[in-house]
Write a structure and sequence with these properties.
The chain is of the alpha+beta class and 358 residues long. It contains nine helices and eleven strands.
Length: 358
């Protein structure tokens, strides 16, 4: 989830790349050779004093100290012929080297803390929105999630697929806002959905449960922004039936891919969840006849409302027949195509869920 616009690994606490570790050594050799090849009245030696600070970003304290000591030797021994530093000049270079060692030590400690915090954060986010399994009951699943906020795995979209006594049920939803501010609402909706899969015999009852969850959370005194709402599409594959049931709460329509043809699943939408407008039955449940080999694509508006440089919306339904044969899978193919269409990816959360019926 989200991983196209993140910072390089070495800026997130991971070990630096090989080129970053080789750069100080290469610069050292180049400066020494350049000094050897130039007349005596031209000095490049003092550029060596800049190498320990550079090494501090790629090495630990010990490695940086080695570079600092090597620079002092090269500058301080006249017999080598690199420089003729004396007294205060050497003291200045030594101070720079010592400061570089301190910087390297602090950087390594901060990197270790960053890795620890990031690991805990990723584990917590994946606990809220774990990847969907490859198969849930008789349905093969493929999901893709990209959060809009840089460096996060979970934003304001959600999806899940669960099997229960009434068949396989799936949800794709888009809550108010995006990024970390919406994660609490995402967690609440997922918890309510997972309970409804087990307890509610009707798909409309699951939607009503989600609506009550958001209304209760909005009424809580601890909620900073009480106007919580979400759009959602719920889908059910009942056991032993050649149909799916689908319910929409103000959400973009699901798409059915059969052979090479794509069509929208026409469902009378109900109001978004959490606004208190739905009454006892949030929306009408539609039954769609399906057959083996059909694929259903559920998505959020981060896909269809993405624009290119000219302001055109992404034509998802038109692109699916072209992308459906991609060996990487339909969800990943759509994301790559969407990223190319928008020049780097949309600025909203994106959720894609593909269900293949057997």
């Amino acid at each position: 989830m989200r991983r196209g616009r993140e910072e390089p690994g070495w800026l997130r606490g991971a070990p630096p790349p090989r080129w970053a570790r080789l750069a100080p050594a290469v610069a050292l050799v180049v400066l020494v050779l350049a000094q050897r090849a130039t007349p005596g009245d031209v000095e490049f030696g003092y550029f060596l004093a800049g190498l320990p600070p550079v090494a501090a970003f790629a090495y630990g304290a010990a490695g940086t100290a080695v570079f600092a000591g090597l620079v002092l030797v090269l500058l301080g021994l006249p017999v080598i012929g690199i420089s003729h530093a004396r007294g205060s000049d050497l003291a200045t270079v030594a101070a720079i080297g010592l400061l570089s060692v301190v910087i390297a030590w602090v950087r390594r400690r901060r990197d270790a803390q960053l890795v620890s915090v990031r690991t805990v954060a990723e584990a917590a986010q994946l606990a809220v929105l774990p990847p969907v399994p490859d198969r849930v009951g008789p349905v093969r699943c493929s999901g893709l999630y990209r959060a809009a906020q840089r460096g996060t795995l979970v934003g304001g979209d959600l999806y899940d697929v669960r099997v229960g006594p009434y068949g396989v049920r799936a949800i794709v939803a888009d809550v108010q806002g995006h990024g970390l501010a919406a994660v609490g609402t995402v967690a609440a909706l997922l918890g309510a959905f997972r309970e409804g899969v087990l307890d509610d015999a009707e798909l409309a009852a699951v939607a009503a449960r989600l609506d009550r969850r958001l209304l209760a959370d909005s009424a809580a005194a601890s909620v900073q922004h009480p106007e919580l709402f979400a759009t959602a599409v719920l889908l059910e594959v009942p056991p032993g039936r050649d149909l799916v049931r689908i319910l929409s709460c103000g959400h973009p329509p699901a798409l059915l891919l059969r052979d090479h043809a794509v069509r929208e699943l026409v469902v009378e939408p109900g109001p978004p969840l959490g606004l208190g407008l739905a009454g006892p039955d949030p929306a009408t449940v539609a039954e769609i006849q399906v057959r083996a080999g059909d694929r259903l694509l559920l998505h959020t508006d981060g896909v269809t409302e993405a624009r290119d440089a000219a302001g055109h919306f992404y034509p998802l339904a038109d692109r699916i027949p072209v992308l459906a044969t991609d060996p990487a899978g339909l969800a990943r193919a759509v994301w790559r195509d969407l990223a190319a269409f928008t020049g780097g990816g949309p600025r909203d959360d994106v959720a894609l869920l593909v269900l293949s019926l057997e």
